[in-house]
Amino acid sequence: MKKISLIIGQTSSLPKEVIEEHGIVCVPYIVNWPEGEKIPGENIFQKMREAEKEGILTLPKTSQPSPGVFKKIFDEELKRAEKLIVLTLSSKLSGGYNSALQAREIIPEKNRIFVLDTLNVTVGEGLIDLYVVKMIQEGKDEREILERFPQIIKNTHLFGMVEDPKWLERGGRISHSFALLLEKMQKIGMRPLIGVKNGKVKPVALKMKAKDVPEALFRELKKEVEKIKDKKEIKIAIGHADNLEGAEKLKELIKKNLKEIEILFLGLIDPVIGVHVGPGSLAIAWSQFKL
After folding, report:
1. Quick check: 286 and 196 in contact, CB under 8 A?
2. 215 and 145 in one domain?
3. 180 falls in which pLDDT band (50, 70, 90)?
4. β-strand partners of 116
5. How far is CA 114 from CA 111, 188, 196, in A?
6. Neighbours of 259 (CB within 10 A)
7. The whole model's pTM is what?
8. For tag attachment on the chain, is the N or C end more exposed, with fewer CB atoms within 10 Å?
9. CATH, residue 263
10. Are 143 and 9 members of one domain?
11. Cβ contacts of residue 101 below 8 Å, gap of 6+?
């Protein structure tokens, strides 16, 4: 029996091969979109683009796993591990954290289960997951992980940009007039920078010269990390909403100009956040934390 089993959400945007490599247990979230079942596409973002072409105006709806789903996974993993650490998407954006807590409460051996709120999303959440993986691999026990976890959250940053504000409008996140304003701004190279603050996704700045999104995100990253002396402590994760070309360009900019920084993974943004920001969006997470 292993000491600790790590359970995460599909919302972390970790690639399948990374999850399998580290033996992580991943809890699926619910995506409900009956109209999209017959629409062609390799991922939900391709389907969203195709649906728009076909005049289908509905968007996928997402929801958290039920406590019953979490309980079933907890019951199975308690047979394999002494302790369970469960990391969830920010509780301020989803009910996944509360579902996991409810499942824990109905398990007799609940003192073996530790449910933690990452207060982050998508690749930021995934980066936090990988820090915990490393601590488990280094033999840290649950007490050490719990002690360090608040600092990991504090040191993990996420920001990104959407390709087209129409998806924010269609999802009810912004008004039609504001979407039109953002479109006009994008034509002259201005885009809002979206980030995570206190567990919530919100605009954090307005960036000039942002027609090229990978270039704009790279400049923002470079500005944020330039004062850090030991850049070898910085880890990066890149996410994209079916915009692999943009994600690869951002990756190459980092590798060429910030050679000391390690990129841990590049993955497809999960549907829970992705359906709101829309196809084409790019996100980057970075963290400085010495284990």
Report:
1. no
2. no
3. confident
4. 87
5. 8, 48, 24
6. 9
7. 0.94
8. N
9. 3.30.1180.10
10. yes
11. 115
